[in-house]
Fold this protein.
Amino acid sequence: MPALDYLAAPGEAVTRMDAVRVRRRGVELGWVVPRTRDVTDHTCLARHWAAARPIYLADFVTAEVAEHGEHIAQALALMEAVLAEADLEDVLHAPPYDARLAPDFRLLPAGIDTGDAQEILRLDFDAYAGERLLAEDLWVKLSWLSFHPDDTSLRFRFSFGIEGYENVAAHWDKQKLAARLTEAIFPESAIVSRNSFLRGLLTSILPVDDVAYVERIVYFNAPNGGAQFHQDVERGHLGVVFAQLHGRSLWLALSRQQLLQELAAFLRTPAGHVAGYPRLRALVADAEGLAAALEAGDEVVEEVLNRSPEFFAHLLRQGHGWLLEPGDIILLPQQSQEHCAWHSVFCADDFPGHALSFAIRERPVDHQ
């Protein structure tokens, strides 16, 4: 069940102590309150996945989060070091990272992609088995999540090769090595990757014998930050698992079909008329046109999705909001452009959170 109710619009007086102020990159969207946390009904998970709807799993890894408390604290310290402009190469050459990386991964001199304004640093690694070179194009890319001056949200993305040009799912061995690199720097990754219950749940709702977690991203969503509405479809991948480890994140998540339906429904409401968007309202009777505008990142559609308090309230009232606390997981089907879960994320605290976001793929048969 959804875990959020809309409480008040921006600027309205709020007295409830459990109210959460929702804002991102200077845009105020209102106040929400959490509901009583519901136990997940596991009997409906396969239907939700088949319909490309998000699956919210409350308290799914709470015990594992507690077990990895030291690693989570180290990760938060690493985030603070980045914000303090520490030399990340020096940090990774010192304890505890030096022992975790050696002897399998050797850090190369850092570089920066001048064509990516959000990139802070990219660290390249060679992977070895003894003295045998296994791969020489693994990397972790550290980036800001936005250009907003008051958003200090960070992400560490682990992959390999030429970003944006390769079919990464075609290179299982390198995906596996990049995943191992993630666990060397962030051992709390095991909360997801070594969770037999989660693996069993996924194989029960997906048409695969086993799963692997690849193309891993480690998030530190900060106050006033988060991710705007998007999907994460990538060739060869089935979906995404997101696990909240520290702090809270607020989510809007629903299938692409639901998003288009809710967008059209909102534009027919009095609030949608008051907010304007005449050109967009003209598309309500044109389902294909509205879908094309969504996929193209139409400026007006983007305005409604990410900066309209009225649409934010509409989605919450229709049951598409969740509040993830440490130990919670959300699963996002990402089968295709037409069959996927769109989602929008906000930091729900006045301090940065820590979370894992891993792509789900079928584990190759010869690696079961």
The first strand starts at residue 4 and ends at 8. Residues 47 and 205 are 8 Å apart (CA to CA). The mean pLDDT is 91. The chain has 14 helices and 16 strands.
